[in-house]
Write a structure and sequence with these properties.
alpha+beta; 5-stranded antiparallel sheet; 6 helices; 10 strands; 29% strand
Length: 261
C-alpha cells in the first residue's frame, strides 16, 4: 500500500510531461509532422514537373495529415497555439531539425553503402547556409520582422546560374515584401522584388546574366507586425541551378542597375 502514492505521483508526472492542451497536437507528434511536411516541400521543389498542379500538391499534403491521423484544421489550430507559446514552439523546431538531420545522415549512409556518390557541388543545390526556420516575436524584437542574407560566389558558381529563394510566411495577416539580387564582376547588379502572401510558398526567381560572373547573391524579407504576437518563416531554401537555355528568358520582371563606385 505504501507504494500507491509514489505510483500515483509518477503517473501524474508522466501525464504532465506534455505542455500542450488536449486539442493541440503534442510536441513530439508535431515535430514528426513538421519534419514530414518539410520533406514533402523538398519533393515538390525538386520534382516540379510532377507537382506542377495545385491539386497534386494538395494530395501529397493530405496524405501526410492522414499518415499522422490529424486534419488540416487540427494542424492550423495547433500552429496558432504554438504561435502564442514560442518557448514550446522553439523546442519543437529544435526537434524537427534533429529529426531531419538524422534522416539525412541515414540516407547518406545508405547511399555510401550502395556505392553512390553524393556531393554538394553538383549542378543543382540548396545553398542556404542558415537555419530553415525563423521565429519573430514582437514583444522581443518589435514590429519589424526582417531576414537579410548575403552570400559570396563560391568555386561552384557559374555564369548564367539561376537562383530561386523559397520560404513560407506563417501567421501573418497581410502581405510582406521580399527581394533577391546579384552583383556582377563588372560592377552592375540585377534584382527582383515582389509582395509575399502569407501561408503560401514564396518563390523569388532571379536568372543571372550568362555573359557575366556573379560575385554575390543577396536578398531580404520585410514584414511589419501590427496585430500579430509573432510571425514565422519556414522551409527557407536558396536553390541554385545551372544555365538552361529553354527557360533562360522565363522569369519574373528583373531590373539591372549599374553601381556607382
Amino acid at each position: 500500500m505504501k507504494w500507491q502514492p509514489f505510483i500515483f505521483l509518477m503517473i501524474v508526472s508522466l501525464a504532465s510531461c506534455s505542455k500542450t492542451p488536449d486539442y493541440v497536437i503534442s510536441e513530439n507528434d508535431m515535430a514528426m509532422l513538421l519534419a514530414d511536411i518539410h520533406e514533402a516541400d523538398a519533393v515538390v521543389t525538386f520534382d516540379k514537373q510532377h507537382y506542377k498542379e495545385d491539386s497534386t500538391k494538395e494530395v501529397l499534403r493530405e496524405s501526410i495529415f492522414a499518415k499522422h491521423g490529424v486534419s488540416e484544421e487540427q494542424f492550423d489550430t495547433s500552429l496558432i497555439w504554438y504561435g502564442h507559446n514560442l518557448d514550446v514552439y522553439t523546442e519543437v523546431y529544435d526537434n524537427v531539425v534533429k529529426i531531419l538531420k538524422d534522416r539525412q545522415k541515414r540516407i547518406i549512409a545508405e547511399a555510401k553503402e550502395a556505392g553512390e556518390k553524393m556531393t554538394l557541388s553538383g549542378d543543382s543545390v540548396d545553398i542556404w547556409a542558415s537555419t530553415p526556420h525563423i521565429i519573430f516575436d514582437r514583444k522581443r524584437l518589435g514590429k519589424d520582422a526582417q531576414i537579410a542574407f548575403s552570400l559570396p560566389a563560391d568555386n561552384n558558381s557559374k555564369a548564367g546560374d539561376r537562383y530561386e529563394w523559397r520560404f513560407i510566411l506563417y501567421n501573418a495577416t497581410k502581405e510582406g515584401n521580399a527581394l533577391i539580387a546579384v552583383d556582377y564582376d563588372d560592377g552592375s547588379s540585377e534584382y527582383h522584388s515582389q509582395n509575399i502572401k502569407p501561408d503560401e510558398t514564396a518563390k523569388l526567381t532571379l536568372q543571372s546574366d550568362s555573359t557575366l560572373n556573379v560575385t554575390r547573391v543577396y536578398g531580404y524579407l520585410i514584414y511589419k507586425m501590427e496585430e500579430e504576437d509573432a510571425v514565422f518563416t519556414d522551409s527557407i531554401m536558396l536553390y541554385r541551378s545551372r544555365l538552361n537555355s529553354d527557360r533562360y528568358n522565363f522569369h519574373n520582371f528583373q531590373r539591372k542597375v549599374k553601381n556607382v563606385r
